[in-house]
Amino acid sequence: MEPPSPARLYATAVALLLVVLGILGFFYTASFGAVDSYEEAFGALQVNGWLNLLYIASGALGLFVAGVASRAYSLAMGLLYTALAILGWGTGALHLVIGLLGLAAAVGTPKPGRRPRRSKPRAKPVRKRA
Question: φ and ψ at 75, to 5 degrees?
Answer without folding.
Answer: -65, -45
